Amino acid sequence: MKKAISFVMACAMVFSLAACGAKEAAPAAEAASTEEAVEEVEEEAEEAEEAADASFDDLEAVELIGADSTGKGAAGHIFGELVAEKVDEITGGKLTIDYHPNGDLGGDADLLRQMKSGDIDIVVCQTAPTVSFIPEMAVFDSPMAFAKYDGETIDKVLNEEGKFKEVLQEAYNAVGYRYLGILQNATYRLTTANKELNTLEDFKGLQIRTMENNNHMAFWTAIGAEPTPLAWAEVYIALQNGTIAAEENAADTVVGANFQEVQSVLACTNHILYANQISINNDSYEALDPAYQAALDQAVAEALEEMSGKLAEIDESNKKILEDAGMTIINYEDDFFDSILELPGVIKLNADIDDATGGLATLLRECLAEA
User: Fold this and answer.
1) What pLDDT score was predicted for residue 232?
2) CA dist 266 to 110, 128, 178, 189, 289, Å?
3) How far apart are CA 344 and CA 329, in angstroms?
4) pLDDT tier at 40, thresholds 50, 70, 90
């Protein structure tokens, strides 16, 4: 990557020098000048590369502990592993992340508690579990808040410098975390069930497993379902024996958990943005040398860019896997989502979330509209 950047810089400078001197220099002199310019730029690039390498060579090796509880092959798992790979590559192995996927170190709440205490440094998880630790993250529980926007627009608000990201960073810092970024590409959490869910009436009395998140539960209650928080490890068996009739997750998570074996319908309710946040214990981040901090930030930025283009593909390919396995895919027209947003319980939930986040839900809508 460094060599490629050096080559581009050299070509740009050579072109500029040749263009500026074209009217005054003879062909031979111009060629000599061009050759000297190339050599000079290459020398400077090599010096810069050596200086960057030396900046890590002079530092003590550091190992961070990272974890997630997503299913193997899910977007969050791939994202976390990619960040670890890029950190290692950027620093030449001087800063590394000992990464534990698939709930090896506990569920989301356990991981976030361990990150708060400093036993784990980095956690990748969906936004919903963070609400118990960072109340402002309830903004992501607003039903259909992102439904009208594409991934690029959403990314500008969540990951580029701006008012919303600034307020979010302050909220993370207040509880001892540091916000590093959010992975998304306008893909959503969906609903699986063992009955057709074609109309709002079909959701009445539906016993559905949700995360232990009050806002998620309030949403399902508002549309007439019966939300039931349940530990992730128990969901498959509960669906299999009929203790619960449905659950909600992104398509890749459904495939990773093999729910196509115990569910017959995939309803694209698109109620919550499927987003994976990555954060670090703030003390752990501050303890890093600035060069390591920059390397970690760079690794996250590169992983976000690389993964965002893959998310839509991951979503569609996993839906195809579920359909090929025999699941019925249900898509909805806009009037279905509009009817949900007009429900009194959903209107109240959105108002409550805005109040609980100090107006952050309103700020999010404003920033999305302006992006």
Assistant:
1) 87
2) 29, 21, 35, 11, 47
3) 28
4) low
**Cα 47 from Cα 77, distance rounded (Å):** 37
Backbone angles phi, psi at 331, to 5 degrees: -110, 155
What does the alpha-carbon distance between residue 49 and residue 4 come to, in Å, rounded to a whole number?
12
The DSSP secondary structure of 211-240, one letter per residue, reads -S-HHHHHHHHHTT-EEEE--HHHHHHHHH
CATH of domain 190-273+314-370: 3.40.190.170
Beta carbons of 266 and 250 less than 8 angstroms apart: no
Find the distance separating the first CA and the last CA of the chain, reported in whole Å.
Answer: 30
**62-183+275-310 and 190-273+314-370 agree in CATH topology:** yes
Radius of gyration of the chain (CA): 25
**How many CA atoms lie within 13 Å of 32's alpha carbon, on the beta-carbon side?**
5
Q: Output the CATH code of domain 62-183+275-310.
A: 3.40.190.170
Query: Which alpha helices (DSSP H) does the chain contain, by range?
Result: 2-20, 27-57, 75-90, 108-117, 151-159, 163-174, 214-222, 232-241, 251-256, 282-287, 290-324, 334-341, 344-356, 360-370
Beta bridge pairs of residue 228:
209
**Tokens at 151, concatenated:** 């991934």
- The dihedral through the CA atoms of 76, 226, 358, 163 has a sign that is positive
pTM for the full predicted model: 0.75
Instruction: Tell me which DSSP letter residue 244 carries.
Output: -
**How confident is the model over 185-202, as a mean pLDDT?**
95
| Whole-number Cα distances in Å, 196 to 128, 150, 191, 259 | 26, 28, 11, 16
pLDDT tens per residue, range 138-177:
999 999 889 888 899 999 999 999 999 999 999 999 999 9
Strand order in the sheet with 62-67: 95-100, 62-67, 122-126, 276-281, 177-183
pLDDT tens across 295-347, in order?
999 999 999 999 988 888 889 999 999 999 999 999 999 889 889 999 999 99
Do the Cβ atoms of 204 and 224 come closer than 8 Å? yes
3-state secondary structure 54-84: HHHHCCCCEEEEEECCCCCCCHHHHHHHHHH
The residue ranges of every structural domain in the chain are 2-46, 62-183+275-310, 190-273+314-370
Identity (one letter) of the amino acid at 166?
E
